[in-house]
Write a structure and sequence with these properties.
The structure holds three protein chains of three kinds. By secondary structure, chain B is an all-alpha fold. Chain B is built from nine helices and no strands. Chain B has one domain. Chain B is elongated. Chain C is α/β, with parallel strands linked by helices. Chain C is built from ten helices and ten strands. The radius of gyration of chain C is 21 Å and the shape is globular. Classes of the chains: A alpha/beta, B mainly alpha, C alpha/beta. Chains in contact: A-B, B-C.
């Protein structure tokens, strides 16, 4: 009987360790935080070109992550990209309505993310509203092309 | 020529037949009313297939994580992207290596032991005598082992992943000097709990079912001689490994390959 | 005591692959008697027990136990019928993960809701009957072959069955344990009034304890009767078997071409 007690203890520890491992994978590795289910709100933005932006990319403000990209789809009215962002609820009704959203690249070849910068208008953006002032991704090939044609015209 | 076609047909029929047998076997043994006694037997088997496989799985996980970090570093450093090491180690472990390698080790360590154990019980007439006492060996012998495997392998996979990521950190951060903040930070930014950890676990649940199923079926259906046992044990490891690798391709294609 | 047979075997046919093993076996096993089934190795005596126990299904014919057709019962009814049967296996077939006590307690635990104290009493009673009460904490691996068989006997008797099947109970035993087993089986059978079927090819021992004997060979019943009547049996095959003669109707040589022709060679084949 004693043998079976230690066995049960072993199995119990094994399963506890498994659950602890899962918690570790959740918190430390995938960066879930325990207080995530705080309030969030959505903002929309249209970009002429999103470059390599992916769903789940970061949305930052002054370098601080304040949300992430929820979905990206083609807007068939304007044939540009319609991006839905999910932002911290704290920012709801605080961002001026002339704020800008730009697609930026971290480092030369790094991932792309959206950077928000604050405008100065008195009206603020609330859930589901649209940021009008947007700046597309810089596409390296286009830059090079521009650079080359400038060089050519300067002769 | 005709004879060859005959042979092929016969082989096909036999394979289908045994697949059907194995399916009926699975259904018959998996679904029974669990009792207190059943829980005790199940615990015993979790110990046998899970706790006793822990050492080999964790040690392998540690080494694989360390190797990943070392190999990944030498490639990433060429692009100046060694900050992405954590992301690379974590994603390859969670999506692929942990479920697959843990399942392969499980097939070798626990699967072969299950086949041999059940085979020995069959060879020494224990299964028959259980039937004569009026106890269904599918319920009493096979079911606890199936369920134990189904629970143990995902737990082992989690352990493999955790230890591997820690091993990668050991090599990448402590030894090669990747900045610790970017190791964890990049990892957290790119690993999605549902998409990566969750899908890895789904894979390992599928593998657990298939590997344990193959192992107990091979044990239950073997020819009860010492030669039969050794052959069935080999078959378990071979079939289970092939099944794991093949299914892994399918699952990866469905989960990450954009098929939908 | 009635004369209606407890177990009836009618026109049993069974084939394994292309080899036919039984070609029409008829038997009537009387209640409270010990019936021996004897025959040379390889005649399928163990197969016959498996057919009676419902582990195998015959190709034709049927087996009735207490009026019920074994092979037409549902799985559940078959299992409840088996509760009334005990079987002693050639190897003992003790569960290797349980000790002696738990092995004997096993049928009681799965089939009854008796309190632990009563299970203990019953187990000790059965173990006392086979003389192994002191060995209750040993594991099956620590038992000798004869002891394992005695434990298995205690387990087979744990639920007080009406019918008990012995599969080669004497095979491979030294003279002492053989004597012990022969005594034990006869004594227990008399004391409990069991219907018993003994499958064996140990002629002397079996004839000494059986009430009735069936001799099977070539898939058929060669002879049956009391042990005494078999001694004077006129059939050459039965006589060869009962007296253990090396050559006779059951040939010493495996079938092959004539020895002379084989020696003279037929074109360089092996």
């Amino acid at each position: 009987m004693k043998r079976s007690k230690t066995m049960e203890l072993g199995v119990g520890l094994f399963m506890l360790a498994g659950i602890a491992g899962l918690v570790f994978l959740g918190l430390r590795v995938s960066g879930l935080s325990l207080d995530t289910p705080e309030s969030r709100f959505e903002l929309h933005a249209n970009f002429a070109n999103i470059g390599g932006l992916k769903p789940r990319a970061r949305v930052t403000m002054a370098g601080v992550t304040v949300g992430r990209v929820e979905s990206i789809e083609l807007d068939t009215d304007w044939y540009d990209a319609h991006v839905v962002m999910e932002l911290d609820g704290d920012l709801e009704d605080t961002l001026p309505e002339d704020s800008t959203a730009a697609i930026l690249t971290s480092g030369l070849l790094g991932e792309q993310y959206i950077g928000l910068s604050v405008g100065g208008a008195p009206e603020t953006l609330s859930d589901g509203e649209r940021i009008r002032d947007t700046q597309s991704a810089l596409v390296l090939e286009e830059l090079i092309q521009q650079f080359v044609s400038n060089m050519a015209s300067e002769g | 020529m005709i004879e060859r076609v005959h042979q092929l047909g016969r082989w096909g029929c036999r394979s289908l037949e045994s697949l059907g047998d194995a399916g009926i076997f699975l259904v018959q043994s998996m679904f029974g009313i669990p009792s207190l006694e059943g829980v005790r037997l199940w615990l015993h088997q979790v110990h046998f297939v899970g706790v006793l496989s822990l050492a080999i799985v964790l040690v392998s996980g540690l080494f694989i994580g360390m190797v990943l970090a070392l190999q990944g570093y030498t490639i990433l450093v060429d692009f100046g992207a060694e900050d992405a090491l954590g992301q690379m180690v974590a994603l390859s472990l969670l999506r692929e290596l942990a479920p697959v390698v843990a399942a392969l080790l499980f097939a070798g360590r626990a699967g072969s032991a299950l086949t041999a154990e059940i085979g020995l019980m069959k060879a020494t007439e224990q299964l028959t005598s259980m039937e004569m006492i009026g106890v269904d060996p599918l319920r009493r012998v096979v079911a606890p082992r199936l369920w134990a495997g189904f629970v143990a392998l995902p737990l082992l996979t989690i352990g493999f992943g955790v230890v591997g990521i820690w091993g990668g950190q050991l090599v990448g951060v402590q030894w090669l000097g990747v900045f610790e903040g970017s190791y964890w930070g990049n990892m957290q930014a790119s690993v999605d709990f549902i998409g990566d950890v969750g899908n890895g676990l789904v894979k390992s649940l599928v593998f657990a079912l298939v590997v344990t199923w193959i192992a107990v079926y091979q044990g239950y259906a073997l020819v009860p001689t010492s030669e039969g046992i050794s052959r069935a044990t080999t078959r378990t490891v071979v079939y289970a490994s092939l099944a794991v690798l093949g299914l892994d391709f399918l699952l990866t294609a469905v989960m990450f390959g954009g098929l939908s | 005591m009635t004369d209606t047979p407890f177990v009836e075997v009618e026109g049993l046919h069974y084939a394994r692959g292309d080899t036919s093993i039984f070609r029409g076996i008829d038997m009537a096993i009387l209640p409270n008697k010990m019936t021996a089934i004897m025959g040379p190795s390889g005649t399928g005596k163990t197969t016959l027990l498996k057919l009676i126990g419902g582990q195998l299904s015959p190709d034709a014919g049927r087996v009735l136990i207490d009026g019920e057709d074994v092979h037409r019962l549902s799985r559940k009814a078959l299992f409840s019928l088996r509760r009334r049967m005990g079987m002693l296996f050639q190897s003992g077939a003790l569960f290797s993960d349980l000790d002696v006590y738990e092995n004997v307690a096993f049928p009681l635990r799965v089939h009854t809701d008796l309190p632990e104290s009563m299970i203990r009493d019953l187990v000790l009673l059965k173990l006392q009957a086979v003389g192994l009460r002191g060995a209750r904490e040993l594991t099956p691996a620590e038992l000798s072959g004869g002891m394992a068989r005695r434990v298995a006997l205690a387990r087979a008797l744990a639920l007080d069955p009406e019918l008990i099947l012995y599969d080669e109970p004497f095979v491979g035993q030294d003279p002492i344990s053989m004597g012990v087993l022969v005594q034990l089986i006869r004594r227990l059978n008399d004391a409990l009034g069991l219907t018993a079927i003994v499958v064996s090819h140990d002629i002397k021992e079996t004839l000494s304890i059986a009430d009735h004997v069936y001799v099977i060979a070539d898939g058929q019943v060669m002879a049956h009767g009391t042990p005494d009547s078999l001694d004077v049996e006129q059939d050459a095959r039965v006589r060869q078997f009962v007296h253990g003669e090396p050559d006779g109707p059951v040939p010493f040589h495996y079938p092959g071409p004539a020895f002379h022709a084989d020696l003279m060679g037929s074109g360089g084949v092996r």
